[in-house]
Specification:
The chain is mainly alpha-helical. The protein is built from two helices and no strands. Helix 1 runs antiparallel to helix 2.
């Protein structure tokens, strides 16, 4: 290390704006993940209905996934827009 060289002072609040943007992107990833599983559950539920097998639990799983997506989208709207 070199002696006599000082670092510029860093504020404690540095990076807060970046953290908010990153958290919004994390929400987007979770929404995409849930969306994928919603499509999978939709296909399985339709297949079970068409073949005459019980599909209640698959449909309830699809409903839970869709409600989770709805909640995540509502939470995502509260975060600031990305730059």
């Amino acid at each position: 290390m070199t002696k006599g060289v000082s670092r510029p002072p860093q504020s404690k609040g540095a990076g807060n704006g970046r953290r908010l943007v990153r958290s919004g992107e994390d929400f987007d990833i979770i929404i995409g993940f849930l969306g994928f599983w919603a499509v999978v559950l939709l296909v399985v539920t339709v297949w079970m209905e068409v073949t005459g097998q019980p599909a209640l639990w698959w449909a309830l799983g699809l409903l839970a996934t869709l409600l989770a997506i709805y909640g995540m989208v509502r939470l995502r709207r509260r975060l600031p827009d990305r730059r």
